[in-house]
Amino acid sequence: MEIFKMALSEKIIINNYGSIPHLSTSKMTQQADKKIHIGQEELLTKKTRDWKDLVIVTEKLDGSNTGVVKKGGQCIPVGRSGYHALTSPHEQHRFFAEYVEKNKDLFSWLPEGWRVCGEWMAQAHGTLYDITEESPFVAFDIFTAKGRVPYIYFVKKCAKHGIATVPLLHIGQPIKIENALKLLGDGRYGNAEKPEGVVYRMEREGKYEFLAKWVRADKEDGKYMVSNVYNVGF
Question: How far is residue 72's CA from residue 97's CA, in Å, rounded to a whole number?
Answer without folding.
Answer: 17
